[in-house]
Design goal:
mainly alpha, 85 residues, single chain
């Protein structure tokens, strides 16, 4: 295995795991009665900054994931990693 392949695969796995974690950290956008009650108790002052940061981190991880995925498609076409092609 070449060092480029190892770096690309590590970036792919780390960004994929990060995407899963940060997507699960986002709050639900429900419009039910429980959301109205909880918003009146807790307010929305601090959550907008947290949500913006979660959105930014999620977008960066998604871009890294897709760039590495496309780079792997061009650098290592189908079967060349296993020595088939």
């Amino acid at each position: 295995m070449s060092p480029l392949l190892i770096i690309c695969l590590l970036l792919l796995f780390v960004s994929g795991a990060g995407l899963i974690v940060f997507i699960l950290l986002h709050s639900g956008k429900g419009t039910g009665i429980s959301d109205m009650i909880s918003s009146s108790f807790y307010g929305n002052q601090g959550t907008s900054i947290v949500e913006k940061n979660l959105d930014r981190i999620t977008i960066v991880l998604a871009v890294v994931f897709f760039v590495v995925l496309i780079a792997l498609m061009f650098v290592y076409p189908h079967g060349s990693i296993l020595g088939i092609g």
